[in-house]
Amino acid sequence: MQTVLNLLETEPIRLFVSFGAVLFLVLNLAAILTMAERKASAYIHLRYGPNRVGPRGLLQPAADVFKLFTKENVHPGRSDLWVFLGAPIAMFLPAALVWMVVPFAPDAVVANLNVGILFFVAVTSIGALGVVMAGYGSRSTFSLLGALRGAAQMISYEVPLILSLLGVIMLTGSLSFVDVVNSQGSTFWTWYFLPQLPMFLTFYIAGLAEVKRVPFDLPEGESEIVGGFMVEYSGMTWALIQAAEFASMGLMSAINVTLFLGGWQPPLPFLDLGAFNWLWFGLKTALIMFTFQWIRWSLPRLRMDQLMDLGWKVLVPITLVWLFVTAGAMLVIPGN
Predict the structure, then answer these.
(1) 10 Å Cβ neighbour count for 121?
(2) Which pLDDT belongs to residue 59?
(3) Transmembrane ranges (predicted)?
(4) Taking the CB of the first residue and of the last residue of the chain, which one, N or C, has fewer CB atoms within 10 A?
(5) Is the C-alpha dihedral spanning 168, 172, 175, 181 positive or negative?
(6) CB within 8 A of 270, min separation 6: which ones?
């Protein structure tokens, strides 16, 4: 037994096993969030939601997976098949990879990179490529329109998203997610969401746009472009795109918690759970994910010009001003 444990701790076996565990977690997270989304929408709309498969409908995600596995994958006759099939993978892999640098607890991180924040920015940027591949590979008008919308939106909102990270980096003096969490302390009034409130709100809004959730779901736009870049997908390829969307939603929530809400730290010292502090991380992440779902079923979709105005005329100036405020505060108040 000890030999097996020692073998699992050697590289690269540890890395492969850890990535497999993260992949399993992300795929299951997508199934759980699908169920949570349908339940949340039902409660908001005063409906029952899924309630036929298993107790209180809890086995509905398993039924959905079975249906999608057995459903035929079709593609347009004029599509570029390799690009068409590669697009869902290009969307899913970045969302799964970044989970490897997210610290769930003090010693529960697959790869504690000293440039973890830079890794997050670099890898999530690849997601826009997958959207463009889906639109181009489908050779469909609606798909191409959705892909162009998606690329414009994701690239535009990367600017305020990256700017909103700089305040945290300045305060911490590190690009490591673990260092960011440790520097926030175990009391909620020392977490960065208070001194960096404009950055926290900007990161939240930009994250919502990056994962293409309502009110920023213009790349899909069911009432305008009937599903956008994913309109030609079916079966498992469509399921992989949905899994990528939910994995990205969970990832943005987890990064938000790590950067601004103390990560695994308890809100007050006497609530410290020791080795089980990952429960605090999970609770905070679930709360942020719930707000994503709440917003989806409560707000209308923005127009394209409104979306661009919000990004370039509101969020970017706010983050730039707050960067100067943060720098000034660090000069005036020594030790901060």
Answers:
(1) 16
(2) 85
(3) 15-36, 81-102, 114-136, 157-177, 189-209, 246-266, 278-299, 311-333
(4) N
(5) negative
(6) none
